[in-house]
Amino acid sequence: MKEVFADIVTIGDEILYGQILDTNSQWISQQLDDLGIKVRRKYSISDKSELIKEAVKESLEKCQLVLITGGLGPTKDDLTKHALAECFGMSLELNHSALEDVEDIFKRMGKELTEINRQQAFLPKGSVKITNERGTAPGMWFDIDKKVVVSMPGVPFEMKAMMTKTVLPKIKQKFTLPVILHQVIRTIGIGESWLSEKIARWEDALPNHLALAYLPGRNQVRLRLTGVGDDRETLKSEMDEEIAKLLPTIQQFVYGFGDLEIEEAVGELLRTRELTIATAESCTGGFLSHKLTSISGSSDYYLGSVIAYHNSIKQQELKVSPKTLEKHGAVSEEVAKEMAEGVRKKLKVDIGISTTGIAGPDGGTEEKPVGTVWMAISFGGKLYSQKIQSPGTRLLNIEYSAIKALDFIRQTLNEG
């Protein structure tokens, strides 16, 4: 089946100046992906007629579908309608249906229709009006040599309503679309390059209609397998088989699939095993607790925390020995273990986990540079410890440490 490609063009100087964020192209991309349409390119251009015409002509050379947002308002800088009319050699004419829509909007607002708003009812002759139920600017659908150009308002809630009710159904009628499926494998604790080497043989053996993408994050890499085919069930079955071949190679690094976050995976492990947990945090300052409690229902397993930032709190609340602090320093394996044991006993939970380190940018030494973090877990009568070296700024170090701590919990539960 022939693939259908699309370009998305957003028009507006305010986007280029960074005054507003372009959320339209992201949302449109998701909708097209669900239909089986591949977005080839998305880009923003200025409110200039020549640029609009140039962009549309260039996109039509490569794509069957061009979706445009922005530049349809009533003011002089809204040039999209005029540019498209010139591009396709069409004159503007009064669209009576569009005029009725605009008149109805002004009547409902209790206002008199102005001439400038009346001009919005003039559309390129040969285009098909797309009703805007949430604004005064109608959209336009152009059939151009078996290809389609759609122009919509830049206001997101107007565009989304127009896309959902009219544009997407018309696209499905217009094109014979393939099936595109994505399956995401969530990994943690292994870098992108190491993961790539580990699964290279499997990746090289994938059939041509299946493609793998690496989506790295902080201490995590998402593997996105994308398949293109004619039948959804057949394609899904084939992708499931390929993933089943892959998993034995990387099982120790896989914590879930799809949109599952590591804190959700850890929470489900704790809930399934009916275990409770508490945190003793120094350098992460409560961020680990935040991650654990960001999940609905976390009160099933999470009981509380001691933010033992100052050494005096480590001693008073967690019973960390002054001698241990004096001999090894707050950032040490020994202190981390006593913190974990202390919070487990204090809050009477099954698992106590601690973090103590140097978030930076100050406080580092040659022996313990910025980013040095010790963490420990007290569980099942045993103490487990782990040292990491975070690579970033203060906030990145805090976030990275919390994610590593979550993976430390996962590893400990899976091994215990």
Automatic annotation (TrEMBL):
Organism this protein belongs to: Reichenbachiella ulvae
Origin: domain of life: Bacteria
PANTHER family in the record: NICOTINAMIDE-NUCLEOTIDE AMIDOHYDROLASE PNCC, NMN AMIDOHYDROLASE-LIKE PROTEIN YFAY
SMART domains, A to Z: MoCF_biosynth
MoaB/Mog domain: residues covered: 7-174
Name recorded for this polypeptide: CinA-like protein
Family assignment from sequence similarity: Belongs to the CinA family.
